[in-house]
Amino acid sequence: EDFAEHSWGIKMAKFAGLCNISTLLGGVISYIVFIKSLTPVFLETVFGKDNVPEAIGTDQWKGQIVWGTVFLLVWMIPLSLPRKIGSLEYASSLCTVSAIYLILCLIFLFFTDRSLVPDIGESIKKADYFV
Predict the structure, then answer these.
(1) Quick one: pLDDT at residue 88?
(2) CA 110 from centroid of its chain's CA atoms
(3) In whole angstroms, what is the distance from residue 72 CA to residue 64 CA?
């Protein structure tokens, strides 16, 4: 925004701010949708469908709403509260842990869900890596 204001004036700085807000909002919404959809499936895969309570299971109107709310309250709101740059070190650590969790969940599903990946070796051979 500062670069846009310096280069093109205050109107472009406001436009850049609106673009940032819309992009960041889309990213936050996609993370919430991803976590609320993946966490119940992950729990049911690890612990078994019968061992996961219905309130946190894969039901769209129970489990997904619970996990979306928990993710929002536990991860997203604390990340948006700090006002000093020094207080962001803990938020950055939290973001790093979240990214690692996301990657581990994807790897776990790749290797365990045979309906998603029937043959691991064949999937690796057929992958388009640099497309």
Answers:
(1) 67
(2) 17
(3) 12
List the chain residues with pLDDT less than 50: none
Neighbour tally for 43: CB within 10 Å: 19
Is 44:52 a contact under the CB 8 Å cutoff?
Answer: yes
Structure tokens given for 34? 């991803």
Q: How far is CA 82 from CA 2, 28, 69, 85, 90, in A?
A: 21, 17, 20, 8, 10
Beta carbons of 55 and 62 less than 8 angstroms apart: yes
Domain ranges of the chain: 32-116
Q: What is the DSSP letter of 48?
A: -
Q: Nearest Cα to 59, choosing from 71, 47, 68?
A: 68
The torsion region of residue 32 among left (phi > 0), alpha (psi -120 to 50) and beta comes to alpha
